[in-house]
Amino acid sequence: MPNTTPFETVEFVGAGPGDPDLLTVGALRALQGAGIILHDRLIPQAILALAGPDAQLIDVGKAGFGPSTPQERINDLIVHHATQGARVVRLKAGDTTLFARLDEEVAACDAANIPWRILPGITSAAAAAAALGQSQTSRGRNSSVRYLTGHDVKGFADHDWAALARPGSVAAIYMGKSAARFVQGRLLMHGADPATPVSVIENASRPDQRVLAVTLATLPAILAAADLDGPALIWLGLPPRAAALSHTRKEFA
Description:
Blueprint: E1 10-14, H1 25-33, E2 36-39, H2 45-48, E3 56-59, H3 71-83, E4 88-92, H4 102-111, E5 116-119, H5 124-132, E6 146-149, E7 151-152, E8 155-156, H6 161-164, E9 171-174, H7 180-189, E10 197-202, E11 210-215, H8 219-226, E12 232-236, E13 249-252
Parallel strand pairs: 1-4, 1-5, 2-3, 2-4, 6-9, 11-13
Antiparallel strand pairs: 7-8, 9-12, 10-11, 10-12
Helix pairs in contact: 3-4
InterPro entries: 4pyrrol_Mease (IPR000878), 4pyrrol_Methylase_sf (IPR035996), 4pyrrole_Mease_sub1 (IPR014777), 4pyrrole_Mease_sub2 (IPR014776), CobA/CysG_C (IPR006366), Siro_Cobalamin_biosynth (IPR050161), Uropor_MeTrfase_CS (IPR003043)
Enzyme class: transferase
Organism: Pontibaca salina
C-alpha cells in the first residue's frame, strides 16, 4: 500500500571519511536539497559548506567519553522536523550502515510512519587502506577482512580473538584508540605475533591525515605518545607502503 503521509522523506546520508571529493553524487544532491541537516560532530566544514543556502545545520554529535547528544534526542529531532514538512538529511560520518546507530533512527521513522531512504558513503576503513596503499584483501594473504569496534555499549568490545590472532588476519578497528591496550592484550593472549604490523590512520583522506606505522607490541605506547586528537582507525595486519606515504605525515616505530 503506498505511503499517503504528507511528510518529506528522511534521507540517511553517508558523508564519507572527510574529503569532499569522496562524497557520492547522491549525497551531494541530498545536501543541496535539504531543509534540515542533522550532522555528526566529525563532519568537516568543507562538506557542510556544500549544503543549500537555506538549509539549517544542527550539530547532533557524539564524542567518546565527552559531551554527546543523546540518541533519543536525535530520534526526536528527526521525527519532529520531518512531521513539520521539512526535508531532513541525517548526515553521518563514513557509511550510514556501519557503526552509525542507523537502526535506531530508522525505527523512529517507522514508528512515526515517515518514509526514508539510505544513501551509503565510503567508510573510513576504505579511506585508511587507500592511505596505506594497501588492498583490504590480497591473494595469498587474506581472503576475508573484519570490521570491528573497540567499544560497544558495555565497554571494550569482545571479539573472536583466536581468529584475529592467526597469521595473515586483517581487521579494521573503529573507535580503537582508548581500547588499544585491551586489544593488544587479548591478541597476545591468543598467540598473536608481537611483530604483527599495525597501522593507525588519523583523519583519513583529510589534509591533516597522519599515519603511524607500528607493531602489535608497540601499539599502546606509540598511541599514547602520539596524542592523537582526530578520528583514527587501526588496521591490524596492514603496514603502509612507502610509496603511498609521500604526501602524508607518517611515523614509524
